[in-house]
Amino acid sequence: MNETQTFSVAVVGGGIVGLSIALTLQQAGERVVIFDKDALTSGASWGNAGHIATEQVFPIASLATLKQVPKMLMDPLSPLRLDWKYLPTIFPWLMRLVWNMRPSKAYAIHQALKVLNDRSLEAWQQFVQQWECKDYLAVKGSLLVTEKTENVQVLQSEVDKFQSIGIDARWLNKVELHDKEPNLHDNLLGGIFFPQTGHVHNIPQLMQILKNKFLQLGGTVREHTEVLDIQNRSNGLAVVVQGDSIQTKRIIIAAGAFSKKWAKLLTGIDVPLDTERGYHLMLPSAQNLLSIPVTSYERRFIMTPMDQGLRLAGTVEYAGLDAAPNMPRATQLYTLAKPLLKIPLSAENSQPWMGFRPSISDSLPVIDKKEQVIFAFGHQHLGLTQAPLTAQLVKQLYFNEPTAFDLNAYRLDRF
């Protein structure tokens, strides 16, 4: 086994969270190497909905949602699917998820999510300004729309709820909604407009720019390099890969859905982390149909306009990290989207995708430091949203600076 040069810090995981951290620390003068078993940002960071979802300040599951689960599991077009073969494995995680739905815990989770999301859009704006890629972030808002009369009042009450907690939310009636997005179908009766949200409209180019900036600053990228072991040696830490051992003073675990084993190895803590397998369908021929992301309240998926076409995303599948992709989950998004648009929706050259969202049973990420290891993973649906802010917080932990706010809710040993 070859011994290579010593780095200040090794980042395990090359998604948007890991890359943002690596770039931030390299710019601060550290010598950083980043590892990914695939290409950088090729997983959930590439396949997400592109939505900077600062309005999503409530847990991923609630008691109200729980009542709908049996019906959703029976519906082939449902946003939720459970592979029954995976049930014995995920059952303890699901029980923790349900336990976290009790009102007192759900409220605490909501407060902790809100603390992160209240700061996430500003962090993104600073981030793209700093790295000269602000043209890839559009801050024009997003919509949550309804097509059922009985849900108009439900969403109107949600507007009041959002406003009461300081989130800018505005009700648009049918006329106002169609003035804002003329290509939405007339069957849509209204929706909530969230002005303080945004979207990334060219994820591949933005990620490439960030990678290039990291390399230009002298950072080291080890793509297609699986980390086999992390060892604590007398002369520091070592990241073991095939045929090589890389010395480093510190390690950051930002491997998303694959972080659980490293937390267990390095601390003995068993984090209740599983994966929500997410799907998207990119429609290259569906250009310029929308100006901002639009989420369907009933159908529970999102349509995001991107330079490459219209991206349909938002399904959840519990089947673990090893099961083969179930691509009908992606293609069914086309069936869900067609009735929401006036213009015929072309599926020509459509591109399905599947990836792994890292979901902890309390809907909160881990952002914590244990001796020479920093953990930053488990952002569930909000990895893209919270990445630049997480990088700021990790930098503060790394240099032993006071953090911008109390990180107790995100500690590794909270479970």
From TrEMBL:
InterPro entries: FAD-dep_OxRdtase, FAD/NAD-bd_sf. The chain crosses the membrane at residues 6-25. The keyword Transmembrane applies. Residues 9-396 form the FAD dependent oxidoreductase domain. GO terms for molecular function: oxidoreductase activity. Keywords: Membrane, Oxidoreductase, Transmembrane, Transmembrane helix. It comes from the Bacteria. The keyword Coiled coil does not apply. One of its GO terms (cellular component) is cytoplasm. This is FAD-binding oxidoreductase. It comes from Pelistega europaea.
